[in-house]
Specification:
By secondary structure, the protein is mainly α. The longest helix is centred in the first third of the chain and has 26 residues. Helices cover 53% and strands 0% of the residues. It has 8 helices and no strands. Helix 7 packs antiparallel against helix 8.
Length: 166
């Protein structure tokens, strides 16, 4: 075995170098990716609905219906009947009693606009309130739904008269 290695060491070394080069070419990164906010979105990543909202296509309606039926069969709250978000999300921290943590919790539940919050029914409000943990009771106590109704209408004067400065 020792004689074989000493006789063919140049061939073995060449094979090793070729193997390393082929391995590098096969497994190297193909693209340089840098994530930034100013990167343009590709067409398939942009919203396709006319008003910029979500849930306005037949596919979205079918998915919501399927989720409703699956939720009934599994006895789970899979798809709640919340109003859809239209347009850009609002700054929920402008509401009195809603800080950054509660705003992110509400956002993770799908509540991103004043209009959505203002249209919550009492049962939906109670169901959301149960999921808020440490913030339980805050939405009713601080009258967040009422505040959101003023801001959804754009009535900042009425809001400030009733709840104070924004």
């Amino acid at each position: 075995m020792q004689e074989l290695i000493s006789l063919y060491w140049p061939v073995i070394l060449a094979a090793l170098v070729i193997g390393l080069i082929v391995g590098y070419l096969a497994f190297r990164p193909k693209q340089r990716i840098s994530l930034s906010d100013d990167t343009p979105k590709r067409p398939h990543m942009q919203s396709k609905s006319a008003d910029g909202g979500e849930g306005n296509t037949i596919v979205d309606a079918a998915a919501a219906g399927t989720a409703d039926i699956a939720g009934q069969l599994l006895d789970a709250d899979v798809h709640e009947n919340l109003p859809g978000a239209n347009g850009d999300p609002d700054d929920l921290t402008a509401l009195k009693g809603v800080g950054p943590k509660l705003a992110s919790t509400l956002s993770s539940m799908g509540l991103t606009t004043y209009d959505q919050i203002s249209k919550l029914s009492d049962t939906q409000l109670e169901a959301i309130d149960e999921k808020l943990g440490a913030f339980s009771g805050r939405l009713k106590r601080d009258r967040v739904v009422e505040q959101a109704a003023y801001l959804a209408r754009g009535n900042t004067a009425g809001y400030e008269a009733k709840f104070g400065k924004l």
